[in-house]
Amino acid sequence: MSKIARRKFIQLSAVAAAGCFVAPARQAQAGDLPHLSVDDPMAAAMKYTEDASSVDPATRNNPAAEQNCANCALIQGNDGDAWRPCQIFPGKAVAAAGWCSVWAPKA
Asked: Does domain 28-95 have CATH number 3.90.550.10?
């Protein structure tokens, strides 16, 4: 390895290390995410609604006594938050009281 290559490597390493300390990454919070609209094409395809009680239980794929986004296996974030991230709708927050056709029971 030549001296120039070593010098360049050390410079790049120092810049990369400084970047880790200056601007540490932060996780997106549900409050930072836009709320999913029922008019969104993906939401419409998944029959998303912000109020699970408005969905007829007979039309659901997985019959269960109580189905909403808050008790779905795909929801993320903190329990008790009104809007939370969902694996099905990346970059958007869903209503915890909502429902969609991909609902799956928590294990």
From this structure: no
